[in-house]
Amino acid sequence: MTLNELSILNFKNIAEAAMQFSPKINCFTGNNGMGKTNLLDAIHYLSFCKSCVSRGGDAAVIRHGDDMMLLQGNYERRGAEEKISIGLQRGKRKVAKRNGKEYQLLSRHIGLLPLVMVSPMDTELIRGSGDDRRRLINQIISQSDRNYLDSLIRYSRAIDNRNAMLKSGIRDAILFESVEEQIVASATLIHGVRKQWIEKFTPIFLKYYHAITGGEECVSLEYVSQLHDSSMSRILAESREHDCAVGFTTRGVHRDDIELMLGQYPMRKIGSQGQCKTYTIALRLAQFEFLMNTCGITPLLLLDDIFDKLDANRVRRIIDVVSGNTGARFGQIFITDTNRTHLDEIIRSVGSDYRIFHVDGGMCHCEEHGEGGAPKP
Hints:
With 377 residues, the protein is α+β, with helices and mostly antiparallel strands. Helix content is 42%, strand content 25%. The protein contains 10 helices and 16 strands. A hairpin with a 2-residue loop joins strand 15 and strand 16. Helix 5 packs across helix 8 and helix 5 packs across helix 9. It is globular, with a radius of gyration of 22 Å.
């Protein structure tokens, strides 16, 4: 799958942009704060209908001082053209269209355009709460399993209903059982799919981590869930009295986590900055290969400032991996870096079609393109 053209109107600090991309390597250079990450976020938005960066709700992505934003992407997917647009006006609902036809449910768009983004914010996967790691699990699986995504939505709604009952002081056992029946059905499927996922995903992750580190460190992933030792129905029954007291559902698959280990200790406690960044990059590259295998489509790969805080050996090995010499054969890549040397090294290593864009104050223009590492005017 490739993104051939992208047009942007009033997205974050980008007033207007129209770009044509290489099917292989696309590099964005420029100083920090100029909009490089925002360009990657626009591509991310077209796949997931949401930002990977902004935490202030949908309105936060609309350029300051404007009332609307519009993103349009022309893709080639399985030999067919796909035209995707997403528009948003302040105070109104988001509108996403595929080939001119509006989605009635945005969830139906998820998985159409598989994408993996490696970002400096990924350190939250290690330092942050279980919410961040659950979000990773859900993002990976949802892109390839529609039933899983539907179960997540049903589970979330049923938990919201149960929480509303708990807060309102309802104590009717029959009412609780009717809501909990929906929770149990969804939770059982979610837990089972996550168990299967971790078994398939872990060996892929280990391959990439060892490729980047040279096999010098021992790491592991452990899926942590209360459902390993009990059923969801039993968990809800046992915790109902406590949940009534605190006013929300304290146990369930919405508390699941992944323990990220370095040797015998959690990475969050002993990992250096370089080790944590290596860990998250390996997680994301494993996500890419997992999606490619399960979706049957090569995802887009977005690499945002991935070389910062890494030693020269790890930088060299990552370049080797991204060049396709280790692991999956990557397709279209979008990469940002303030260091042009890294980008030039990747282009030489890949030896394929490329474009280099310069970004300054939200303005973007192609300053170089070529094939096989040979520049064109």
